[in-house]
Amino acid sequence: MNWDIPEDLKDDRSFTTRYDRRVAAYKCCLHRAGYPASSKEQTIKFTGAKDLNEKVGIDPNKGVSLNAASRWWEKVYELMGDKDPFFTNYSQKNNRDWADNDLMSLLASQGNFQNPNRRDAWRR
Fold first, then answer.
1. CA-based Rg of the chain, rounded to a whole angstrom?
2. CA-CA distance, 97 to 77, in Å (whole number)?
3. Contact yes or no for 109/60 (Cβ under 8 A)
4. pLDDT of 36-67, one tens digit each?
């Protein structure tokens, strides 16, 4: 699979941040499904958000294992379900949701459910 960012969008920081998050979430989906990662992809790095990193206790900006990244996404998805003020504030400030529809779909597939309030599906 080609994980490269299209040339015409490489300088768009907002796009690359969202793209990197989607790739990270996708890799975590594969990891949780039991697909082995290559030795060079055992560690994953992507931009989270300072407030979320502090609440979750994991900073993916520094590079983390696939297990830690999966836990980060799980906790962030739970925060979404809890209506954490971070997401409301982000939406009001930026006129868009922190997680776009593609990312939300990937997060839902990690836990095999559509609603971030259903935490039980994350536990396998």
1. 14
2. 13
3. no
4. 999 888 999 999 999 999 999 999 999 999 99
